[in-house]
């Protein structure tokens, strides 16, 4: 399975993206497997918190670009809806969720991390939204969640320049809960797990529901069918990415 689930005796559920050969990028199979793992968590009353991580010291490079190379409007719309629904389900879990970010969280990988309640990263990790540079759009609720997390000014910088920032900078602007040295990452995540498990689970559920009421509504963003029907330049950018040649579009 592309997403592995393990629950320890304390009620810590660990979800691991297990597609390292593709830098744990998210294709349709990965999203579907993630949905199945979320279903298991939702139906397990013993789960007290969820830690989300990638395999082999790499969080998530984003959406699998091969799925978006030239998907056509119908497939693009299906992928958009699948990812949006899956991430909304993660955000709505009744227990606290913690993203453990190593190496990078880019594009859809950062959207995935933003669907979690808490994020811990290494200081040298790369976080950002490179979609505009590749002729893609942010597909899975990332616009609303980023604005909710860091505000308009920082969100515009990340989206409109398509330039990643470091984990240390992400902590400075509030994109992540904490940035630590690589050898401290596991310990920092475990400290959050212990703090969460020490709390009353019903109280945490009520707090999560209350906070959700203040969040920006995540739309079925944006109009992918029209975008992929009309944007020849975006297709050229994606083909240039696959062929690793420069583009002037």
Describe the structure in your own words.
The chain is α/β, with parallel strands linked by helices. It has one domain (about 5-195): Alpha-Beta Complex (2-enoyl-CoA Hydratase, Chain A, domain 1). The chain contains eleven helices and nine strands. It has helices at about 30-40, 70-90, 110-115, 130-135, 140-150, 150-160, 165-170, 185-195, 200-210, 225-230, 230-245; strands spanning about 5, 10-15, 50-55, 95-100, 105, 120, 125-130, 165, 180. It has a six-stranded mixed sheet with strand order 1-2-3-4-6-9, sandwiched between helices. Helix 1 links the parallel strand 2 (about 10-15) and strand 3. The protein starts with a strand and ends in a 6-residue tail after the last helix. About 45% of the residues are buried.
- Provide the spatial order of strands within the biggest beta sheet: 1-2-3-4-6-9
Residue share in helix = 40-55%
Main β-sheet, in a few words? 6 strands, mixed
Number of strands: 9
Q: Tell me what the CATH architecture is.
A: Alpha-Beta Complex
* Basic shape: globular
Strand-pairing-aware structural class: alpha/beta
Total domain modules: 1
Kindly, what is the distance between the CA atoms of the first and last residues, rounded to a whole number of angstroms?
39 Å
Radius of gyration: 18 Å
Mean pLDDT: 87
CATH class: Alpha Beta
Pfam family, one: ECH_1
Keywords: Isomerase
Protein name: Enoyl-CoA hydratase/isomerase family protein
GO molecular function, one term: isomerase activity
């Amino acid at each position: 399975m592309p997403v592995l689930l393990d629950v320890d005796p304390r009620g810590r559920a660990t979800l691991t993206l297990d597609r390292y050969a593709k830098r744990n990028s998210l294709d349709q199979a990965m999203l579907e497997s993630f949905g199945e793992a979320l279903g298991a968590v939702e139906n397990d009353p013993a789960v007290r918190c969820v830690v989300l991580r990638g395999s082999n010291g790499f969080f998530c490079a984003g959406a699998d670009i091969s799925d978006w190379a030239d998907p056509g409007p119908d497939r693009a719309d299906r992928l958009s809806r699948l990812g949006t629904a899956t991430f909304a389900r993660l955000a709505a879990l009744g227990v606290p969720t913690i993203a453990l970010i190593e190496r990078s969280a880019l594009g859809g990988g950062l959207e995935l991390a933003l669907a979690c309640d808490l994020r811990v990263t290494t200081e040298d990790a790369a976080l950002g939204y490179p979609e505009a540079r590749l002729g893609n759009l942010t597909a899975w609720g990332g616009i609303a969640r980023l604005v909710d997390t860091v505000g308009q000014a920082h969100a515009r910088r990340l989206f409109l320049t398509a330039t990643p920032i470091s984990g240390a900078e992400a902590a400075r602007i509030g994109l992540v809960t904490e940035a630590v040295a690589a050898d401290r990452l596991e310990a920092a995540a475990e400290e959050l797990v212990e703090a969460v498990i020490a709390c009353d689970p019903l109280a945490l559920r009520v707090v999560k529901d209350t906070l959700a009421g203040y969040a920006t509504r995540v739309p079925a963003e944006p109009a992918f069918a029209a975008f992929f029907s009309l944007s020849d330049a975006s297709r050229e950018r994606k083909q240039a990415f696959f062929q690793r040649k420069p583009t002037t579009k």
